[in-house]
Design a protein that fits this description.
Layout lengths: L1 H36 L1 H4 L6 H37 L2 H7 L4 H43 L18 E8 L6 E8 L8 E12 L5 E14 L1 H7 L7 E14 L21 H28 L2 H4 L12 H5 L3 H6 L3 H67 L6 H25 L5 H5 L1 H18 L7 H21 L1
């Protein structure tokens, strides 16, 4: 018993150390991927260090659910690969300890981690997602840093194109400046040229003050000319100045959005809130569908038109059923026929537009519901993926008996890419309503779970699944059987 307890402690120490290392590496890689995807939202915005650190913190929290399965796969594969390479697994099995007993402390640990992953996804991740996307939207709306390049046109100022031939980096003086102001349209553009200029921001950081020295401006008077005459000759106004000041809107302050704008988004809700939103939206969709059905059945063509000068409500149902539309139409003159046909076409177009509008409205409800259902299933699938990857990595490491960072990393990356492709395909199928949501979101688990069961079975029976010599022996036996079958024929 004491030996088994020591073995359990040894297994936990070996696994947890590698898990901490692989988890850190996976989080770093996925964090770099997030930064690469959001690079346009943060670069050139002039955001403070505290804002960037906050962005990194929320991004780090958001990648944890995806990093956990990969870290578990890699850590379990390395742990059992190292033990197999050092013949520690062989020694344990020789002492009568089965592979399931060896894996028991790690299985319990992975179970606890899976439960923790679900609780993390259910309670921590929604708050982090809310703050993360609020921060991203706030950064997107912030005006970019004003960094005017030299000897090329700069269009970072709305309605302006700025050209500077030379720039003094110490004093900030811009030399040989040319500005194209097309804020009133290209036909009423203004061209300003100056020998030098300086840029300043107002104290409230809401405006840009441009001071121009020794220059002239040319203003197109096309708009004024059109109000006076239709002459093709377009006049312009020329102005020479020693010093000129221009004030332009350029808000550089960081205005954070209110987090309440994300309150109804699926990423900001826990499981209970998602279930409540799905039920509420299904009820609204059912009511909307019934209203549309009643509208289409009651507001029919004859329900809006008069029949022989009488309203439909004053006509007996048997009279309407026996009414001969062809007879009525044949008794009309040409003008009446044309008018009746035009009314029928208009009524059909109106009905088609109504049906299309109703379909769009119902599709909005369905998309809203699918997004919430996808997010609800994701909280469970990511936690379940931790268990699956452990039962893939641990037996696979026991079979290949290769430790270190070489073969385990290659195998882990390949397995995770397969998982990611399958999971992404299932997600898109569910999002586009090609499959039921539960089928799309559980597709990757359903395909990888048999692989984990198969590998675990092979590892418990000491199968040489990845041993080339065993494969050569099996192929030779197969050849011998085929040759014996041919001789019998």
């Amino acid at each position: 018993m004491a030996l088994l307890k020591k073995m359990d402690k040894y297994m936990l120490r070996s696994f947890l150390g590698l898990f901490a290392l692989t988890f850190t590496i996976c989080c770093f890689i996925l964090l770099m991927q997030t930064l690469w995807m959001r690079i346009n939202d943060i670069v050139g915005k002039g955001a403070e260090i505290s804002v960037l650190l906050e962005f990194l913190l929320y991004a780090f929290i958001n990648v944890i659910p995806l990093a956990l399965p990969l870290a578990i796969l890699l850590a379990s594969l390395m742990t059992f690969g190292n033990m197999g390479e050092k013949f520690e697994l062989t020694a344990m099995k020789s002492a009568g300890v089965s592979l399931f007993r060896i894996m028991r402390p790690l299985t319990i640990s992975i179970g606890i981690i899976s439960v923790g992953a679900f609780l993390f996804s259910n309670y921590v991740l929604p708050k982090s997602q809310t703050k993360f996307w609020t921060l991203v939207f706030s950064l997107r709306q912030r005006a970019p840093e004003l960094e005017i390049p030299v000897a090329e046109f700069y269009d970072g100022l709305s309605g302006w194109k700025f050209y500077v031939r030379e720039k003094n980096m110490k004093t900030g003086l811009l030399k040989d400046v040319m500005i194209y102001d097309y804020s009133n349209g290209f036909q009423d553009a203004t061209v300003i040229r100056a020998d030098s200029a300086r840029l300043f921001f107002t104290d409230d950081n809401h405006y840009l003050l441009l001071k121009l020295y020794d220059g002239e401006s040319f203003e197109n008077l096309n708009r004024q000319q059109q109000r006076v005459t239709n002459s093709k000759n377009v006049p312009y106004r020329r102005e020479t100045f020693r010093e000129k000041q221009i004030l332009k809107d350029f808000d550089t302050s960081f205005n954070r959005y209110d987090e309440s704008c994300m309150g109804d988004q699926h990423v900001s809700k826990n499981a209970q809130q998602l279930i409540h939103s799905i039920d509420s939206m299904n009820q609204l969709a059912a009511v909307r569908s019934r209203e549309q059905s009643d509208n289409l059945t009651t507001n029919c063509y004859f329900g809006r038109e008069r029949l022989h000068g009488r309203e439909l409500g004053s006509i007996d149902e048997t009279e309407v059923a026996n009414y001969d539309v062809d007879s009525l139409f044949s008794n009309m003159n040409n003008h009446q026929k044309q008018r009746a046909m035009q009314k029928a076409v208009d009524a059909a177009k109106t009905k088609a537009d109504l049906i299309q509008y109703n379909a769009i409205m119902l599709d909005d409800y369905q998309r809203y519901t699918r997004k919430h259902e996808i997010e609800l299933h994701r909280k469970f699938t990511l936690a379940f993926a931790c268990l699956i990857f452990f039962f893939i990595g641990a037996p696979l490491g026991a079979i290949i008996r290769k430790g270190g960072m070489g073969a385990p990393i290659v195998i882990s990356v390949v397995m995770f890419i397969i998982y990611y492709i399958i999971d992404n395909a299932g997600y898109k199928m569910a999002r586009e309503a090609l499959w039921p949501v539960w089928e799309g979101m559980w597709l990757s688990s359903a395909m990888l779970l048999p692989i984990g069961i198969f590998l675990t079975y092979k590892a418990t029976h000491d199968s040489a699944l990845f041993n080339p010599e065993a494969w050569f022996v099996a192929i030779e036996k197969l050849k011998e059987k085929m040759q014996s079958a041919r001789k019998l024929k």
